Amino acid sequence: MSADWTFFVVLLPFLFTAAYTDLKFMLLKNWMNIALFALFLPLGLMVLPVEDFAYRLCIGLAVFVVLMLLAIFNAFGAGDAKYLAALTPFIAPEDYSAFVFILCYTNLIAIVLHRIARSVAAIRNLAPDWKSWAARKFPMGYAISGAALFFFSYRALSGPFALG
């Protein structure tokens, strides 16, 4: 089984959980981010060369530091920062630009879909207790999960991205 397929299968429940909890509670739970990172340790060692594994861990740590600094200045949510940092080691370095590209478009789509859904009473009534319906801020975990779902499913089923 390839690393891409392994990562896709393992990440799937986390992606749906993060999207749901962020929509419902406007919160990404720390246990989930810790579990994601903890899962990468044995999985990464099993399916990646040691050099790639170490490099991905270092990049994940750098992403964590940079995004937490942004969170300190309220430019980014701390839960979203931890979630992206926990997902980063699962992404191959050559795919960082593709993931960011997908994330940008997914954010736009997710914002539009969320705003439309919350303005339709019939949809809001399906989940009346979701905090994201009334929140001024956007549940970014929903968009991050959508981007990651697209990215990892594409990698698992089709292979590397060819941008440029």
Number of helices: 7
What is the typical, i.e. mean, pLDDT?
A: 95
Order of helices and strands: HHHHHHH
Distance between the termini: 28 Å
Biggest sheet, in brief? none
Provide the gyration radius in Å. Answer: 16 Å
Spans of at least 5 consecutive residues whose pLDDT stays below 50 are: none
Structural class: mainly alpha
Count of individual domains: 1
Shape: globular
Give the strand tally: 0
Helix content: over 70%
| Percent in strands | under 5%
Transmembrane segments: 31-50, 57-76, 96-117, 138-157
GO molecular function: aspartic-type endopeptidase activity
Domain Prepilin type IV endopeptidase peptidase: 10-110
Keywords: Membrane, Transmembrane, Transmembrane helix
